[in-house]
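Bench notes, bay 3.
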Amino acid sequence: MADIELRELRLFLVLAEELHFGRTAERLGLTTSRASQSLRALERKLGGRRLFDRTSRVVTLTAAGHALHDELAPIVTGLDNTLTRARTRAAGPGAIRLGVLNAASGTAVLNEAVTHFEAANEGASVRLVATPLNDRLGPLRRREVDLSVTRLPLDQPDIVIGPLLSQADPRVVMVAIDHPLAARPQVSVEDFADYPVRKPSDVPELAEASLPSHTPTGRPIVASDAEVNDVSELLLLIAQGRLIHSTVAPFAEHFRHPAIAIVPVSDLPPSSTALAWLKGYEHPARDAFVAVVEQVVARQPAQ
């Protein structure tokens, strides 16, 4: 039997998760054709049995694929964890990559934790990595970051929610300074039905918390069809009056813009932020940093 390469097994596991060759190729930094070729090579090395049924529109695991996945996934995860521990023992804590959408939420806790962690571990560092506006959990799942600052509520089966960094962050809406809502002392969710709004789609429970699908009286809240790729585009569209943006006060204050007004929302509950990480992915240095964060949080006055 020809030697099977670890990269082929990783591709199989990612494809079993995504069930889409394009997304699998993107996650692994391959072309779609290369991903397909690698799968065919793995199937040949395993005796020619098909692991996936493929049509032009649908990819599904075969019975053989399901069996392989169930046996292989814990083995590869265990190998990854063993290698991570070995690298940590050899090199010390090293760099921890912390994904953030903005540097406002939980800043006091994070700054203190980073200072203590780096002082207690020679050569250790915590590096901030910008999280994409429309893919806030993607870097965690692709292991491009070890931890991420996330807004709550969050209920994803592969993500662990850790210590809270901030609590009771007020809800606000960002609008152009000449917008009809700009001069109001506060607004209601009912007002959102009258204007195009940006509704994030990457994490449904977060989107619904900041912007319900309907107002209290049952009117639909319609999402804007404007394409928003990053924060700069978002601010420009708000300033131009092309949409309004429901968010939290720390985000609005961090990205304060002279052409944008920030108005409190009276009937949305406040929000919190927390650290999060990928379930089943061992990382001793990450866990050590989380422990420091928990100690800092425990010393914070009750909110």
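Next record in the batch:
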Amino acid sequence: MAIIRVEDVAYVRFRAPDLGAMQGFLEDFGLAVVEAGERRLVARGAGAAPVAHVTEPGEPGFASLALRAASLADLETLAAAEGVSVEPLDLPGGGQVARLRDPDGHVVEVVAGQAEAAPLPLPQAQAWNRIGAHPRLRATKRVAAGPAHVARLGHVVLNVSDFRAAEAWYKDRFGFITSDEIRLTPEFALGAFLRCDRGAAPTDHHTLFLIQSPKGPGFNHAAFEVADLDDLMLGHQRLQDAGRHAEWGVGRHILGSQVFDYWRDPWGHTLEHWTDGDLFTAADGSNVATLQDLLGVQWGPAAPPTMG
């Protein structure tokens, strides 16, 4: 039995030597900056989460990921089991936080009690005409140019040194369920897509993906859900016009089914736009997949070597 069952990912935290340069990228990427000063840069999506991305001054690097506990009581239970303290969370929305380290030293912040933020505007959904169904009649379709509208942080991918050890650590503490395990042979699994256990409530195909990488442990990427396909393509155009570093996309994944578009921030951290992902409940069980399933696409360009 897991100590607690987390509900979602909360935010990612980075370090960078130039917060102004990071702010410019995040605004092109479609995040809303809510705090910009010498001490830190904080950005959010359009949904209720008050924080999605934090940058603090320092040498470029990934600092931590945060998971959201279901309650303050769960956070206290986790902290007691791990022998760590619960402290006030000094970020917009407040709340409490307990900090752990996984087997590879990644800092995992577990948060609870954050106040929800007022939603920000998202583009109004517009009907799509297709063969056999034409809901948009006698009307044009127009989308306004600009950045994508990031709604929320959807998942984080970590490279790990020992997949089975990392998998056990995260499942034992946070109650993750395997959606798809990536097996190279019947005896050896390379990684797995893990979703939150929210019982009968549908949840993303994965909130965390752990992969045993030849590059060693470290940050792989963080993925942010945008309004829809038009919004993702608008975001692609904005980032391209701004001269940002495109990594992979646009395409549709096999595992998770998301339409994706990957970009690099000014210090090489990969951030993904995605839309139209799969949702499952706890009763939907687990599957086994191949490396070809992981790296393959239903349509779109092949995965570049940088995506390891």
